[in-house]
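[step 3/7] inverse_fold.run input=structure_tokens len=379
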């Protein structure tokens, strides 16, 4: 499978060896001799694969790889990292930075070619299946922790599923996921399993094994359940997982943690719509304003909804005060559901299913309709 391959290495001899090896297999080779140039060429030359040396002037290979993973345009670009050190620690750093493969010097040309071919094939399969279905991604993120983001994501998913939509709920967080408790699920495998894999190994089969079925016909992928499973994901993992899920469903609802890690950012950048959840309280409103500004900095066409969840009943700030602090209109103000929340968790059923005529459920139904019909209101 001839491809365009970017080779980034400041060692002229090694660069020649790699280039000649690749050209033997009819690959087109473009060359960068330092980190910044590699990054620039990866973005402008549209290569199919990048081979990055760890030690390079300017930016090292880890930095280049991390920057590629953060950019939605290159987040799933296959990367092979080269290092002369051969240390386990180096390899782990490379994989954490989002590299798909890691080769230690001296480079064996046959091994290099095999890895390149394997990666190109896997990437092609990934892209093809993503083209089969292009599910829309709705992300839900709390301005702060504990504001009701997961409850909202679960109910949104359940309502869409009952409306006949093909929907997957992805609880994408590095630490304890609460979706399993809310839905009374006992996942044997959680998202944490994916951390053990390189992003290209996150295949449709792997992802499918993590699905938990629900009574309302949505498929659910639960976050980590045990302390031993906690830990960060790379942007490469996030990109690969989302590519798989959007190929498997028309809608992917992502429950995100209120964090600023690279994986969360990668999901936000790949979203079609984002709900920022806040409480009617000064510090939370301030946090929501900052989160919204951050999202807008990715792209000002990203549809962002601000949804206030009023868990307490009495609002510490009025809707007008909140909107004036945000400089934005709230898409929805979700009312308290304290009376049914306990029962819902006890039955493992979202409120929209358990009590579809509850005022909370009505607001979720309205919000779901709005998200599928209109653009987010801007003040
Ligand atoms: N509308 C509501 N009325 C009353 N209680 C609510 C409402 N929405 C959520 N809650 C309760 O608030 C608590 C936090 O909710 P939830 O877990 O959904 O928040 P979160 O933002 O996802 O939190 P975390 O940051 O821990 O992930 C839960 O006990 C939930 O039952
Ligand atoms: Mg949550």
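[step 3/7] decode complete -> sequence:
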């Amino acid at each position: 499978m001839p491809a365009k391959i970017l080779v980034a290495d400041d060692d002229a001899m090694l660069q020649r060896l790699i280039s000649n090896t690749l050209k033997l297999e009819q690959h087109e080779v473009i060359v960068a001799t330092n980190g910044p140039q590699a990054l620039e060429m990866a973005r402008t030359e549209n290569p199919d694969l990048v081979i990055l040396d760890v030690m390079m002037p300017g930016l090292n290979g880890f930095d280049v790889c991390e920057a590629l993973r953060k950019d939605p345009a290159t987040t799933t670009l296959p990367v092979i990292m080269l290092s002369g050190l051969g240390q386990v620690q180096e390899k782990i750093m490379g994989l954490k930075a989002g590299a798909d493969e890691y080769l230690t010097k001296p480079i064996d040309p046959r091994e290099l070619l095999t890895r390149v071919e394997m990666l190109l094939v896997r990437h092609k399969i990934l892209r093809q299946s993503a083209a089969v279905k292009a599910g829309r991604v709705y992300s839900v993120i709390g301005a702060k922790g504990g504001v009701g983001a997961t409850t909202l994501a679960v109910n949104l998913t359940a309502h869409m599923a009952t409306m006949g939509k093909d929907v997957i709920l992805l609880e994408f967080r590095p630490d304890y996921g609460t979706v399993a408790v809310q839905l009374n699920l006992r996942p044997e495998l959680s998202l944490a399993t994916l951390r053990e894999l390189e992003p290209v190994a996150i295949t449709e089969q792997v992802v499918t094994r993590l699905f938990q079925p629900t009574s309302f016909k949505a498929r659910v992928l639960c976050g980590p359940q045990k302390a031993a499973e906690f830990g960060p994901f790379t942007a490469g993992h996030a990109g690969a997982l989302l590519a798989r899920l959007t190929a498997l469903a028309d809608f992917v609802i992502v429950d995100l943690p209120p964090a600023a890690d690279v994986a969360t950012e990668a999901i936000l950048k790949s979203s079609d719509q984002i709900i920022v959840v806040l409480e009617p309280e000064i510090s939370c409103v301030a946090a929501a304003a900052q989160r919204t500004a951050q999202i807008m900095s990715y792209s000002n066409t990203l549809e962002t909804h601000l949804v206030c969840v009023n868990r307490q009943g009495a609002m510490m700030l009025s809707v007008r005060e909140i909107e004036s602090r945000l400089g934005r209109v709230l898409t929805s103000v979700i009312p308290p559901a304290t009376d049914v929340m306990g029962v819902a968790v006890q039955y493992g059923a979202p409120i929209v299913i358990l009590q579809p005529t509850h005022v909370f459920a009505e607001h979720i139904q309205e919000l779901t309709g709005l998200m599928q019909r209109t653009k987010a209101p801007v003040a």
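[step 4/7] annotate
The chain has a mean pLDDT of 91.
The chain has two domains: 4-130, 134-373.
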